[in-house]
Amino acid sequence: MTFPKNLSYTKSHEWIEDLGGGAYRVGLTDYAQNALGDVVFVNLPEPGRELTPGEPFCDVESVKAVSDVYSPVTGTVSEINEVLLDSPERINQDCYASWLIKAEASAPGGDWLDADEYETFAASEQSH
Amino acid sequence: MSNYIPNPDAVQMDMLRAIGYSEMSELFADIPEALRVGPLDLPVGMSELGVRRAVSAMAASNTVFPTIFRGAGAYRHYIPAIVKTVVSKETFLTAYTPYQAEVSQGVLQAIFEYQSEICMLTGMAASNASAYDGASAAAEAAAMCRDRKRAHTLIAASLNPDTIATVETYSRAADAPVSMLPVQNGTLDIDALRGMIGADVSSVIVQSPNYYGLIEDWAAISEICHAAGAKLIAVCNPIALALYKTPGECGADIAVGEGQPLGMPLGFGGPYLGFMACVKGMTRQLPGRIAGLTVDADGRRCFVLTLQAREQHIRREKASSSICSNEALCALTATAYLAAMGPQGLRQTAEQCYAKAHYAASALAAAGFPIRHDAPFFNEFLTECPVDADKLARRLETEGMLGGLPVDGGILWCVTEMNTRDEIDRLAAACEEVRRHG
Amino acid sequence: MADALSALTALNKEDVPLVFERSVPGARTDMLPPLDVPESLPDAALLRSEPPLLPELTEGEVSRHFSALERRAFGVNNGFYPLGSCTMKYNPKINEEMAALPGFADVHPLQPERTAQGCLAVIARLEGMLREISGMDAMSLQPAAGAHGEFTGVMMIKAYHERRGDGKRRTKMIIPDAAHGTNPASAAMNGYTVVTIPSDANGCVDVAALRAAVGADTAGLMLTNPNTLGLFDPNVAEITGIVHGEGGLCYYDGANLNAIMGITRPGDMGFDVVHLNLHKTFATPHGGGGPGGGAVGCKAFLSEYLPKPGVADNGGSLTFDNDTPLSVGKVRAFYGNFLVCVRALCYLLTLGREGVPQAASNAVLNANYLMRRLADPDEFAHNRACMHEFVLSMKKLKAETGVSALDLAKGLLDKGMHPPTMYFPLIVEEALMFEPTETESRATLDAAAEAFRALVKQARDNPDSLHTAPHAAPVRRPDEVRAARTPILRRET
Q: Fewer Cβ neighbours under 10 Å: the N or C end of chain B?
């Protein structure tokens, strides 16, 4: 499993890329896509939807499970990755290229982890 | 009596002892004594012949009308003998939901064929495996259309009243508003729709042929809906779909209806078949089971239940519906019916319904029961009732006829391919006689 | 039993063409006599542009097609079907014949009540028997299935609170994590926020967690008892008391009633509303997924909230009563899955007062017998007497051999047995849930236990053979990922 150093992470297994100027990209971590198994559908939000830290803004389906994705920021959805609507498997193939949304954040959420902290956290989750 | 238990008492005792118990009651040790119930106040069990006699006597106390001119949501059509043979097959009868695809291909393939046929009839892209009945299917369709911004459902007052009531019930549960769209001369008042549709409206529900048998203008209605950002839910009659423009052709987003005319008996109202189909973009909002085509590990075609992450057993409180068991055997009935009738037989059925209903409308008008509305109708129509409705009903009963349903001060008649010209002539004669002589 | 076990392996391995692929243009049946009135057609502008592409077949081809499909299906008539939580008991044939009587099948739901007294009597009698069995004061047969009954029953709870001016405050429905998925879904359809409470290791309600969760915002609690681990929660009276103490109501999910009918009653446990599954407990056939029956019952103080219409007895003549202003309303057209109710009535008339508890006792005996024969105690999710079903956890086997609950289930297919319910309840890892029902013989249970033990041995000796099971079924494992990613839900035209 890989956890790029330039990204931030949450304990609910989202990655966050800071694009500057209050803009962020959000996706699912390698740990998350691996735990989900084959992703078959991504239920993306509508652009303009409000985001609250820790609240789900979309869900991701595998054959026998559905998992919420939680917002790491306060703000709104500015763009969704429509490629995923027809090709959800890209999340399994390259989760860091397959962002879910771009967010315009009025405030970042708290409790972000850096890559090393997240790797340690993910390892402890796995051993459960 | 029989309890269908294959292990005689002695074997039961052996089994108990084999697993370390000496009495049956020990197995129920977790149930506190205070909660135990004594012998129930139920009758003593009966033999098979005893049950046959008792239940046959109940059936015999009902009147089975040889001739029926009543519909209003339940229709007597011809049921080919082969349909009854197919749905009596014991394996179809006693299987459950095909969770284990490898040994359920027969059930899954039949569902896939059913879904295909519903799509063909409605002109829609995707169908589910069935809902409880037509009324609850309309209610589920309204729920499919609601989202965070729009939750208001508009219902044409020309819908079957049971469908209206059911949509209202489901909507009330969801705390979602519902408003009635007025009717003019038996069909939806389109100007009123233009006035009432707004940014809060999620869907508009329009039935055609409607409760009065009249054809509604789905195409014009769907344009108004879509211009306002709302969905059109078309409630349809599957026999009429053999003739009339489909919901798909008219731009509807969801087509639902009561599938009972496709080979199910009247059965005092159930079990019936709710069918639900939609445009491609709404497929994942469909509630309930859906079968899909895929391949097995050897690359051979096979079928599975799919898109299951929509459903309650996975999504739990986030599922849009709690439906689990559906009306699978009724869907199989429809599949067998459509296979037996074929496109030609279904078309013939619809044409005969139309022609006979129009013949009957003329005959009743001549008998002094004029038709109330001038809009085109399929096989149901509302006439005035110049006589006491109950008196007319009893007079028709002496002819072995179930007459039309008293509705809005008139009579709602239904004529199908089952009604002969002779029956219609006798109906008109009896109506005229009651009108002239009381 | 040998015959039953070989039923699957005898299945036809040839593909069955789709009904459309059998179609021959011009092939037809002739069902209707010629039109005997003047021809007429709707205005051309109203007609569909293309006829539906329905299959064109002769009757003989229709017969062959559905017979071929039947051979690729598996029912209770084919063999052992211990699908947990589904109560796949034998479906008596007299019930089918009675439901097909013209005196029921050909009765129009809107014909005058005086001409349908037999149908109304069926409803009234069955309601009475179900009231007695459930310990409820009133009953409605309208819901079409269990989940429909839940939806209806929760709506009654909501209507009750609203009537008392308490609706805005009571927004939460408490549901244990081991519950059937329909429970939270039905609560959510009624606008309730679901509060999930943990179960203890036996699947029983964690009473401390319940006490902590219950409060002035509680609308009610939804519970299955016996629970989904197949254990009777002995604290049930205390549990319903806790909820009542805070003004909430208690809903009983009757999916597991087969274990206790005639032994104890939801009404006596303190429940206010119940649904019963006619297609489980009362032997009506499952039909490949339905139709079912989800009768909903309640205590007297809730009876005016039952769905419309009820049946009233006016001095010997039965009528439908629509004059119930507090009713939650109509939940479907007409009166319920009536012909399913005819079957359930036949079943209860057959069993009678002795047969009902005998069925429950033997369902429990068969489950305990199978459980002890099937597995080593360390594979039980719990190690004590079960009720009508039990759950095994394959966690240890999976850790040791890599063979999962799914692999074992697929292996059972090769043994000619329908697998148990897999991966439910969610609180048990690698769960397999067996419900044999009372209508299985000792020989069947012995054979099933032997088959299962052989599979466990196979898991240790040759795990790969189970990863690829089944081998003898009509098809191999389907590619479910492909089915869900690129759905093909109808024949492409």
A: C
Identify whether the C-beta of residue B346 lies closer than 8 Å to the C-beta of residue B242: yes
Domain layout of chain B by residue ranges: 67-74+342-437, 81-336
pTM: predicted TM-score of the whole model, two decimal places: 0.96
Q: Buried b / exposed e across C339-362, counting CB within 10 Å, b at 16+?
A: bbbbbbbbbbbbbbbbbbbbbbbb
Chain mean pLDDT for chain B: 97
Model confidence at A127, pLDDT cuts 50, 70, 90, reads: low
Average pLDDT score over residue span B14-20: 95
Looking at residue B2, what is its pLDDT?
87
What number does CATH give the domain B67-74+342-437? 3.90.1150.10
State which CATH number among 2.40.50.100, 3.40.718.10, 1.10.3720.10, 2.120.10.30 fits the domain covering A8-109: 2.40.50.100
Section C114-138 average pLDDT: 98
Q: Is A43 on the interface with C (CB under 8 A)?
A: no
* CATH fold group of domain C96-349: Aspartate Aminotransferase; domain 2 (3.40.640)
**A40: which chain C residues are within 8 Å (Cβ-Cβ)?**
481, 484-485
Minimum distance, in Å, between the CA of residue C153 and any CA atom of chain B: 11
What are the distances in angstroms from CA B394 to CA B268, B365, C25? 20, 20, 48
Report whether pLDDT(C6) > 90: no
Domain residues of chain C, as ranges? 96-349, 356-473
A63 and C480 within 8 Å at the Cβ level: the answer is: yes
Given a cut of 50, is residue C356 above it in pLDDT?
yes
- Contact residues on chain C for A63, CB-CB shorter than 8 A: 480-481, 484
**CATH superfamily, region C356-473:** Aspartate Aminotransferase, domain 1 (3.90.1150.10)
Give yes or no for residue C429 having a pLDDT over 50. Answer: yes
B9-18 and C442-461 helices, crossing angle to 10°: 30
| pLDDT tens-place string over residues A59-97 | 999 988 899 999 999 999 999 999 999 999 999 999 999
Cβ separation of B46 and C88 shorter than 8 Å? no
The stretches of C377-441 forming alpha helices (DSSP H) are 395-401, 405-414
Work out the end-to-end distance of chain A between its first and last CA atoms, rounded to an integer number of angstroms: 17
The CATH number for B81-336, chosen from 3.40.640.10, 3.20.20.60, 3.40.50.620, 3.40.50.300, is 3.40.640.10
Q: Name the residue in chain C with its Cα closest to that of A41.
A: C485
Give the nearest chain B residue to C282 (CA atoms). B3
CA distances from C261 to B25, C212, C281, C283, C368 (A): 14, 32, 9, 13, 17
Confidence check: pLDDT of C123 > 80: yes
Tokens describing residue A87: 């090709």
**Per-residue confidence (pLDDT) for residue C127, from 0 to 100:** 98
Please give, rounded to a whole number of angstroms, the shortest distance from the CA of A88 to a CA of chain B.
14
| Nearest-angstrom CA–CA distance, B165 and B171 | 10
CB contact under 8 A, A40 and B309: yes
The one-letter amino acid at C389: E
CA C362 to the chain's CA centroid: 20
Q: Do B284 and A41 touch (CB under 8 A)?
A: yes
Chain segment C280-305, per-residue pLDDT in tens: 999 999 999 999 999 999 999 999 99
* pLDDT tens profile B172-190: 999 999 999 999 999 999 9
How many angstroms away from the CA of B407 is the closest CA of chain A?
46
pLDDT tens for B93-130 read: 999 999 999 999 999 999 999 999 999 999 999 999 99
Residues of C in contact with B288 (CB under 8 A): none
C4 has pLDDT over 90: no
Gap between the Cα atoms of B121 and B125, Å rounded: 11
